[in-house]
Amino acid sequence: MSVFGWMNDQILRMVWLNDLVENGVRAVGLDPASRLGGSVQFFVYDVIKIFALLSVLIFVISWAQSHSPPERTRALLGGRSGLGANTMAALLGTLTPFCSCSSIPLFIGFTAAGLPLSVTFSFLISSPLVDLASVILLASIFNWPIALAYVAVGLVVAVVGGTVIGRLGMEDQVAAFVRTAPVSGEAERLTQRERLAYARDQVAEIVRRVWPYVLIGVGIGAAIHNWIPAEVVSALIGQDKWWSVPLAVLVGIPMYADIFGTLPIAEALVGKGVGLGTVLAFMMAVTALSLPSLILLRRVVRLPLLVTFTGVVTAGILSIGLIFNAISNWFI
């Protein structure tokens, strides 16, 4: 356990980097204990750590994905139905480091291939909500129990949400062009060099897409961590406030960011005494129910299905937020 703890601190949490940044802040004449110095240290440390971990993780995950293209995923899910198929779709969603908008083309492809609506929605919910990179980053900021708990509840939301939508029999609420969209054949086999090039390109693409949200998220986190008094945060969304979870969901929906951009904000909120359930609800609302993704989804499904999807996922997030606020002492 001591070896695991050392590896977790030095590789994931990058304690050495935090110490290095702290010394750098002092070297330029700032006090890390001051508001300005603490903000600079928080910002520089989190930005470097998140991008370093993100690049390595996306490269490894993308290389692994090159062995299993979407065509193979469709074949794996094809002909399956029921809770087992929804669970498999949710698990496969964790292997795709996509934001909610990027997941919709895959949703179209799966639907056009004839997969059940429940299965495609389980994938659509899980893909932006949970992925392997977010698990490692969560562990680097909080701890492994919280990271694994987030994955577990994310999968539950995806499986239950997809199952409920499937049971409602709303297949006719999918736009007609989705059913007739062309489905590509089996992908060609890639050489090792092509796989490495694909992984490199994925890193560049994802970093290019998420860097503004990471910088904004870290900036907000630094401001909350060093400039906003804990008493103010607690008065607004403290763990004892019944409205904290619904408010976190309402605040999260208009935002558009990957989970990587929400992590620094979550870190700062937990440090100010905000309940774990409230923070998880905020992260889930941003990633699974962002307004831009709902607007894009509206183009491929009719309004009743969109409202049902939003309502089911919102209910799941609210339930999980309230439950985790009640049992947060198990994790922190």
TrEMBL record:
InterPro entries: DUF318, UPF0718_permease
Family label: Belongs to the UPF0718 family.
Gene Ontology cellular-component annotations: plasma membrane
PANTHER family (UniProt xref): PERMEASE RV2963-RELATED
TM ranges: 42-64, 148-169, 210-230, 242-261, 273-297, 303-327
Topology of this chain in the membrane: Multi-pass membrane protein
UniProt keyword terms in alphabetical order: Cell membrane, Membrane, Transmembrane, Transmembrane helix
A Pfam family recorded for this sequence: ArsP_1
Subcellular location: Cell membrane
Organism taxonomic ancestry: Bacteria, Pseudomonadati, Pseudomonadota, Alphaproteobacteria, Rhodobacterales
Protein name in UniProt: Permease
